[in-house]
Amino acid sequence: MPTAHPIITLDNVSRFYQAGSVRVTALSGIDMQLIQGDFVTIMGPSGGGKTTLLNLMGGLDRPDEGDIHINGHHVSEMNDRQLTELRRKEIGFVFQFFNLLPTLTVWENVELPLLLSGAPGRARKSIETLLDYVGLLSRRDSFPAEMSGGEMQRVAIARALVHQPSIVLADEPTGNLDSENGHKILDILKKASDDFATTVVVVTHNPTAAEYGNRHFRIQDGRLQTVNGDADG
User: For every one of its 233 residues, what pLDDT tens digit does the chain have, with 9 covering 90 and above?
Assistant: First the structure.
């Protein structure tokens, strides 16, 4: 495994929203440093700031105050095109509702990030390896409607990993699954973090899911609390 180094750093990060004439604080003074290979879980109530924090970590949003670095890139100094390129190269996303394209096969859904990044030449080996890794190589020609929720989420994980990102961000990845399939998904994400030295961040409402993290945080009213692991690394 390569020597661990900081992958995501948040320095006194705050994010505000305007609700009519009222300024709402979504995040306040967040300090966090995640290193290569961390498996991080973040819990908190609805409206507590979890999704906002994940969007900032993924370069989907920018802070109103403070600084964010993603694998050495200073988010505030990047334009939209550069952030799009950063996401394509460095970040994989896993969502609660899978977000697979229904008209594409399993293979084609996993292949899509490689095509978008202009790297189809290495697609076949990467896709075969990852579909085997998540136990779905035999379903390569199936469509999402022919699969269970747990299988679709495994496809989504393969898609998130296919371009070898340094970061995988998972937003309630077990929220639409039963407990057995939820455990399978978390096992795969944890194994991927260990095997590929990928930094995995899981936002969850589930206390059992939160225990999978080697670092565990809670966010409430826009403030981050350390449950297990130092917030500043």
Answer: 445 678 999 999 999 988 888 888 999 999 999 999 999 999 988 878 888 999 999 999 999 999 999 998 999 899 999 999 999 889 999 998 889 999 999 999 999 888 877 765 666 778 999 999 999 999 999 999 999 999 999 999 999 999 899 999 999 999 889 999 999 999 999 999 999 999 999 999 888 888 888 999 999 889 998 776 554 44
Tally the C-alpha atoms within 13 A of residue 82's C-alpha that lie toward its C-beta: 8
Cβ neighbour number for residue 202 with a 10 Å cutoff: 29
What are the residue boundaries of the structural domains of the chain, listed by start?
6-228
Structure tokens at 88: 């394509």
pTM summary value: 0.90
Q: How far apart are the first and last CA of the chain?
A: 19
The DSSP call for residue 71 is: T
Question: Which residue is associated with the tokens 């924090």?
Answer: 53
Pinpoint the alpha helices (H) of 25-122: 50-57, 80-90, 106-116
Please give the CATH architecture assigned to the domain spanning 6-228: 3-Layer(aba) Sandwich (3.40)
* Bridge partner residues of 129 (DSSP): none
- In the chain, the amino acid numbered 105 is T
Record the tokens describing residue 36, joined without a space: 């290569």
Are residues 196 and 189 in contact, defined by beta-carbon separation less than 8 angstroms? no
Q: What is the dihedral of CA 213, 216, 219, 224, to 10 degrees?
A: -140
Closest CA to 155 of 206, 207, 98: 98
Q: What CA–CA distance (Å, rounded) separates 208 from 107?
A: 31
